Amino acid sequence: MLCEVVVQGGKLLVKSQDTGLLKINLSAIRHNWRTLRGVFSGEHCGAVVKANAYGLGYAPVVQALFSEGCRSFFVASFGEAMALKKLLATRADIYVLQGCPEGMEMQFVSAQIIPVIVSETMLRRWCKAVQDIAAPCVIKVNTGMNRLGLSIGECERWLQEDAPWNAAQPQVIMSHMACADTLGHPLNLLQLERFKRLVGLAKKRFPGIKASLANSASLFLGEAWHFDLARPGIALYGGREGIPSVCNLRPVVTLSLPVIQVREISSGEWVGYGGEFRAEHKRRIAVVCGGYADGLIRAFSSRAVGKFKGHSLAVLGRVSMDSCVFDISSLEEGQCPVEGDYIEVFGPNCDITEQSARAGTISYELLTRLGERLRKHYIEK
Ligand SMILES: *Cc1c(COP(=O)(O)O)cnc(C)c1O
């Protein structure tokens, strides 16, 4: 058995053939970015690469997007921004979606990282700290999601008053959609109307200011939601939440698990912890390497399916830490997987968004929970 032990960032990683195989298709990421840029009617299509590019790895993902011409990258925190900064020798804009924590203003300025200002207090602090420096920032307004952002009233006051804290150099006015993946949700129009009005005011006051509203799903609500700068994330990585099925996006991530044992169980036998599955008749089962420590969340238990040579295989009983069990009873003897074969749990044959829905979650969660001991292969095809 091939086994590799590597030290990576101070951590010891063990990679051998008895772990799941994670293939990340960088050509597909590039294709998806081009496709979204084609749908987008505004000026700049950026990319959201927070949380280690949705779990897929900053370095290869950011390099792939940069090579396509993407120049605006969004991350969650300053730490993530610094990781990106190391990768981007050439100039690109790096935005921190959670803004600037108190006292870190000058660190943002000297690293040329752009904070998304998410409250009036943060705006006042920022303006005070950067008074005489032309340091760009983004102003985020809460148009209905009620998570982050200046309230509409605070935003109007900021745009109308000549207060000293108005020294900000806002490059972008931003808001975020709460229900873009639910066509016809009343918030979609309400947030759009509120944002449009504020953008109008902002463009009067700061003629060069850009507007940014759209995440992946918002790009498919209609051009009215597009504005100047788009912030797609999940659709780049093959997630299809809120994406019309006609849209030609490619799957990016394939997770395949090696079969380590095949066995027959008789009627009346149980499978796995808690005996959650009980066989009503004789079954043939395949035990694979890969469990919740690898990102197969426990909600997959008795709900998810795997794919093998075009056949759907149900997960039987509970997912364990390192393994889980598939039902292969419906396969003819000669078609059954044997030790060393791989069962796909998401990828080109098993849509990640459909799989996540079976487990009551979203592709975002599956991607960002992928385990470290998976063998990661970056491919181009
Ligand atoms: C995560 C995030 C996005 C990207 O959303 P997707 O649904 O993944 O396209 C865009 N904007 C903000 C503010 C975000 O937090």
Task: Write the topology of this structure.
Elements: E1 3-8, E2 11-16, E3 21-25, H1 26-39, E4 44-45, E5 47-48, H2 50-54, H3 58-68, E6 72-75, H4 78-87, E7 93-96, H5 105-111, E8 114-117, H6 120-129, E9 136-140, H7 152-160, E10 169-174, H8 186-205, E11 210-212, E12 229-230, E13 253-265, E14 270-271, E15 277-278, E16 283-289, E17 305-308, E18 311-314, E19 323-327, E20 342-346, H9 352-358, H10 363-368, E21 375-379
Parallel strand pairs: 3-21, 4-12, 5-6, 6-7, 7-8, 8-9, 9-10, 10-11
Antiparallel strand pairs: 1-2, 3-13, 13-16, 13-20, 14-15, 16-19, 17-18
Helix pairs in contact: 1-3, 7-8
Bound molecules: pyridoxal-5'-phosphate.
For the termini, the CA-CA separation is 27 Å
Strand elements, count: 21
Given the structure, what is the number of helices?
10
Low-confidence stretches: none
- Ligand roster: pyridoxal-5'-phosphate
Question: What is the overall pLDDT average?
Answer: 94
Shape: elongated
> Main β-sheet, in a few words?
7 strands, parallel
The percentage helix is 25-40%
Q: In order across it, which strands form the biggest sheet?
A: 5-6-7-8-9-10-11
User: What structural category characterises the helix and strand content?
Assistant: alpha/beta
What is the alpha-carbon Rg in Å? 24 Å
Beta-strand content estimate: 25-35%
Fold and architecture overview:
This protein has 381 residues and is an alpha/beta fold. Helix content is 26%, strand content 25%. Strand 6 (72-75), helix 4 and strand 7 (93-96) form a beta-alpha-beta unit. The model has no long low-confidence stretch (mean pLDDT 94). The structure holds pyridoxal-5'-phosphate (PLP). The site of pyridoxal-5'-phosphate has 12 residues, from loops.
